[in-house]
Fold this protein.
Amino acid sequence: MEVRVANVRKEFDRFPALHDVSLDIRSGELIALLGPSGSGKTTLLRLIAGLERPTRGKIFFGEEDASLKSIQERNVGFVFQHYALFRHMTVADNIGFGLKVRPGATRPPAEEIRRRASELLDFVQLSGLEKRYPAQLSGGQRQRVALARAMAIEPAVLLLDEPFGALDAQVRRELRRWLRDIHDTTGHTTIFVTHDQEEALELADRVVVMSQGRIEQVGTADEVYDTPNSPFVYGFIGDSSSLPARVEDGQVWLAERPIGLSAPDVPAGAATLFFRPHDVELLDGCGGCIAGTVVNSRRVAETRRVELEVGGDRQRVEIELPIDHAAANKSRIAFRPRKWKLFPRAD
Amino acid sequence: MSNATTRTGWRFRQPSVIPGFGLTLGFSLAYLTLIILIPLSGLAWRSAALGWADFWRIALDRRTLHALEISFGTALIAAAVNVVFGTIVAWVLVRYQFPGRRIVDAMVDLPFALPTAVAGIALTTLYAPNGWLGKPLMALGIKVAYSPLGIVMALIFIGLPFVVRTVQPIIEEIDKEVEEAAATLGASRFQTITRVLAPGLLPAVVTGFALAFARGVGEYGSVIFIAGNLPNISEIAPLLIVIRLEEYNYAAATAIAAVMLALSFLMLFVINLLQSWSRKRYG
């Protein structure tokens, strides 16, 4: 089922949580809503589910205007961050709940509901736990039951709110791969919210990066990582360093010196230079480079990450060096970013 | 979730690393003995002095039986009524914001604080055949004051806060997400309440029922004013005990008291079993 969010605005007590958000989601896509807390990602998910009503704008499921439908009629599978399992019901009853509450005509017979619950339990790899109560399951198992419960109603869209938020790192990684498999098998249109960029980039077909109630960028993992379209996205996705710079005559200037980067397409004026710490080339002499004094050096996995103080006003940037590089404190290092981007800055 | 670890069955729970298990257990037992067990055994002792034949004669006396029936019957009905309406009151107080909510919330506690005699007199004035409510009800052929119905009214008044105050915190704890989950799965509001929320409230409701019931059985002050106290019609067991005491018939008084005690204990025990069953199942 395609989902289309058209110019949606949401206010809570006059405080805007979403400003004029539009988003097209293709059928069968796995989409991540990624952003820091307060960016409006959960609000957007709840609006799609019908748990909140938009202040303005519409949400379409296929051709139908879902804004006119109640939550019950929308037929969405929603997995809550804390699972929200019914704790007085067994696992099987939890999964069968959505079928049991259907009106008489469309409700499958009890035997069929039981069979379906059992099938779904097999599917989420929890066979044989039908009779358990949620309190008797581990966090990861509860998460799977919540997913099975949401899938039991054959939802038009599957919505997951921070699905792995409450789990430890190992279980998270495992469930992440498993969710991808499930998505590929069932083909449900799936939208999940996360603040973990690694999770979003690894799992989703497309990532929606949000900040302060707006969508900053929508794209594949490659697109948002390699061609971020705003300072926020550059700073939020992956590691980045930034320096205040200036553009003059198509050249990038840092303080009073050009640093050997040409930017013919960027209008002259103040700008911020962004680059990735690992994507720099080290230079010997400095006839057009960024030079700084090492103030801090840390070993991170297969590289050494050093913090430099650059220029008279001691701006700090991070770059990565090979581990055998002798980056002792107070030594000077000269480098130039290989890939970088300038965003104009007003000041 | 938390009570999964406390189900240890019939054995002492493992003493924790915090010292003082022996001391605290000893203190609790000594305290309970002093405050509850000794006075109650005095009661048993006193009624034992009667001898079996006399004891049964008094216990099975028509007037005694009737008084017991009235006491336990009205307490059960009142507790049942309170369970329904007390739960609704608690629900409204937790779920809705309305002007004066805090005042209503405070008012629920009034039956706790008010001297019961005052409550009894107020209710009697209201429901007496010439009272504000008594008159129109009388015209409809319903006699409230000076009948068992009046006792039920008084016990409803007395027992309400017990139900409200036990159920209220549990309603406050209901996770909003659980209701939302039920809604996304297609459950109507009614189905959400009956199938998802009510079972979670059951243990607290049973506790509230037990407290209101126990209070109702022992209630004296408010009831004697509104009941009319006609032997075999609207005479409660606690009053009968007082009557016997005033006749200096201590043996008969203790005998009735002993029967009441045994019955109360039995019923509370059953309710407790019910409670632990529902807690296990729904907690």
Q: What stands out?
A: Residues 17-48 of chain B form one domain. The longest helix of chain B spans residues 62-95. Chain B touches chain A through 22 residues (CB under 8 Å). Chain B has 13 helices and no strands.
